[in-house]
Amino acid sequence: MKKIYKLIIFLILISFVAFAGIYVYAFSSYFILFPKVENKSFSEFSPNDSLVINFPEPIDIGYYKDNIKLIPETPMQTKVDATLTKIVIVPKTTWKVDTAYQVVIPDGRAKNFMQIKSDKFDFKTASYPKVVEVTPKNGEIDVRLDIEDPIKISFDKSTNDFFIDFRFSPEVGVKYKNNEEKNQFEILPQESLKDGTLYTLTIFAKAKKADDKDYHQIYETLFTTLPPKPVAWSKNLTERVEEAKKFTFARIKDGKYIDVNLSTQIMTIFENGKVINSFVISSGKRGMETPKGEHQIYNKFPRAWSSKYGLYMPYWMAIVADGKFGIHELPEWPGGYKEGQNHLGIPVSHGCMRLGVGPAAFVYNWAEIGTKVLVY
To answer: What is d(CA 153, CA 131) in angstroms, rounded to the nearest whole number?
Structure first.
């Protein structure tokens, strides 16, 4: 009997040790597992991303099915991968933009009965991209758009996680291109805008997986297009110069060039397609016309002497290789008499293009040898 009692006691001890071991294994803090989040950045969490929770051991699905919570409450789907070590959380629509969330993982168990401790993970979805610069500027007038002068929009970050929608009012279709980072856009209307019309460009954005009804306005800008070109140029020379600044469009977009309209007797200077200034000239009279075509500045002299006519030509710039024609200030005789300003706006020269006092020096100092001159 003693042997039987000893055997029973021994078995009881073995059972106790075994149960104690199982208890320690299953409930001791030394054997607790913790879930981890796979996503790298929680400060700029994409509203299109899935939230991935990793576990160090295969999990018992029963502990997690329908027990994971999102705050604020959000309809979601949870998927466990084939290895039972990963839970993927996906909202049924999309994460709200610029919103703070918390995911709560409950206590659970691994397949090997080890404890998996509950945990909370906080994350915030990315905000909408912000417009930081627009050309033309808000409220700008006399706007003329073309393929070399489109509307330019810069954002503070890449718009890669969003769809961007550009809408004109009055309504007109839009075409655009963007850089590789998708933070700079160039926009053109698909048809010509009406002259002298106020347009509103409104910019909307939505997360790529969001519904179209979720487009959110992020910016609005206004501009007014150039009014219709005058049927006849003003007889007032000051007004005509202002008209030329508005309605003379660059024929050369790169670098400097001098544009001369003989019919209006106006010279307009451009740099990289932008008007620098316009001036009244006096070109060649009938029978001694200023040659039309594409020329260039061949040489410059601050006070050239014309032996043919016996006078000085201040701020001389030759536009042909032989120096026969050029641009200069109103000529002077050696005695000091200077041709009057009243000849400006009238073709009275012997073929050169005369400028008034002030404009001649400006153009002379601005232009360089080789600057193109277009006369038409």
So the answer is: 7
Q: Could you give the CA distance from residue 152 to residue 149 in angstroms, rounded to a whole number? A: 8
Q: How far apart are alpha carbons 221 and 175 in whole angstroms?
A: 17
Q: What is 237-375's CATH number?
A: 2.40.440.10
* Residues 6 or more apart whose Cβ sits within 8 Å of residue 344: 237, 265, 280, 281, 282, 330, 354, 355, 356
Q: What value does the mean pLDDT take over residues 18-31?
A: 47
Q: In whole angstroms, give the CA distance from residue 90 to residue 52.
A: 9
CATH fold label, 25-124: Immunoglobulin-like (2.60.40)
Comparing C-alpha atoms, which of 85, 86, 213, 68 is closest to residue 77? Answer: 68
Domain boundaries, the chain: 25-124, 131-225, 237-375
**d(Cα 333, Cα 323) in Å, to the nearest integer?**
20
160 dihedral zone (left: phi>0; alpha: psi -120 to 50; beta):
alpha
34: pLDDT strictly greater than 80 = no
Residue 286 burial class via C-beta count within 10 angstroms: exposed 0-12, middle 13-18, buried 19 and up: exposed
Answer whether 25-124 and 131-225 agree in fold: yes
Cα separation of 332 and 338, whole Å? 4
- Read off the pLDDT of residues 201-235 as tens digits, 9 standing for 90 and up: 999 999 999 999 999 999 999 999 999 988 899 99
Q: 131-225 has which CATH code?
A: 2.60.40.3710
